[in-house]
Amino acid sequence: MRIAATGDLPYYAVIFTSLRTEGDHGYGQMAEAMVEAASRQPGFLGVESAREELGITVSYWSSLEAIAAWKRDLDHQMAQRLGREQWYQAYKTRICKVERDYAFSRD
Amino acid sequence: MRIAATGDLPYYAVIFTSLRTEGDHGYGQMAEAMVEAASRQPGFLGVESAREELGITVSYWSSLEAIAAWKRDLDHQMAQRLGREQWYQAYKTRICKVERDYAFSRD
User: Fold this and answer.
1) What value does the mean pLDDT take over residues A24-52?
2) Quick one: closest CA in B to A8, which residue?
3) Tens digit of each residue's pLDDT (9 = 90 or more) over B43-93
4) Structural domain boundaries of chain B?
5) CB–CB contact A52 B54 (8 Å)
6) pLDDT for residue B107
7) Strand order in A88-105's β-sheet?
8) Across A10-107, where does the E strand assignment appear?
9) Residue A46 and residue B2: Cα distance in Å, rounded?
10) For position A107, what pLDDT does the model report?
11) Beta bridge mates, A104
12) How many angstroms separate the CA of residue B8 from the nearest CA in chain A?
C-alpha cells in the first residue's frame, strides 16, 4: 500500500476508525471487495489503511456527492450491515474537507 | 488505543500518512514523547494510529490555530526535522475540517 496520490485541493476524506470483533467471519474477503468496488466509483481518489489494535482506513473523494453515492451503493450497504452485525465492536466515521496538504519524499 | 472521543462538531483532523525507513533510530521513543506532548497542547482532542506497511496517525484538534501552535512547538519541530532526516521514506500531512461524524458501538 502506498500514500494516496490525491491531487489538487480541495478534496474530501472519510476517516473510518474501527475496533474488530474476534474471528474473520468473511471480513478479509469483503474488505478487499469493498476497496475494489470503491476504487471504481466516480470521484474516488485513493485509499490508505492500517490495522493494529485499531484499524484506520482513510478514503479520499473529489466531492461530498461522491461520498454520498458510495454510501448508497447496494453492495456497500450490505457490507455496512454485516459490519454492524458481525465484524465491528465499534467504529466511527468522520467526513472531512481537506483544506491543506503537504508531502515529503526522499526520492 | 481507543477510538478518539472527539466531541461536538466542528473540529479538525490532521491525517499523517507515512512510510518508514529501515531501523528504529530512536523513532519509537520520540513517537511516544510526541503523542504525550501533543496531548498536553491546548485544543488537543485525541489521536488514533496504526501501522502496517503504511503508518497512519490521525490527531484531532479544536481549531486550525491549535494545529498551527503544535506545528511550531520547538520539540515537535526537532522531531519533524529528524523525521525528514532519518525516520521517513515519505510522508503526507493533510489538514482537514471534520464536517460530519457518526459512530457505532455494540456496548
Assistant:
1) 96
2) B94
3) 999 999 999 999 999 999 999 999 999 999 999 999 999 999 999 999 999
4) 11-98
5) no
6) 73
7) A44-51, A55-61, A11-20, A88-105, B88-105, B11-20, B55-61, B44-51
8) 11-20, 44-51, 55-61, 88-105
9) 25
10) 73
11) B91
12) 12
* Best mutation target, A9, A45, A54, to test chain B (most B CBs within 10 A): A54
Task: Name which of B80, B88, B59 is nearest A56 in CA terms.
Answer: B59
Q: Which CATH number, 3.30.70.100, 3.90.650.10, 3.30.1490.10, 3.90.1150.10, labels domain A14-98?
A: 3.30.70.100
Mean pLDDT of chain A: 96
Q: Which of B48, B89, B92 sits opposite A101 (nearest CB)?
A: B92
Interface test with B, best of A14, A17, A19, A86 (most B CBs within 10 A): A17
A48/B50 Cβ within 8 A = no
Taking an 8 Å Cβ-Cβ cutoff, which residues of chain A contact chain B? 1-4, 6, 13, 15, 17-19, 21, 48-56, 58, 64, 83-84, 88-107
CA distance, residue A38 to nearest chain B CA (Å): 19
For the cut 80, the answer to whether the pLDDT of residue A28 exceeds it is yes
pLDDT, residue A1, reads 85
Yes or no, beta carbons of B13 and A58 under 8 Å apart: no
Output phi, psi for A59, to 5 deg. Answer: -110, 150
Domain B11-98 has CATH 3.20.20.10: no
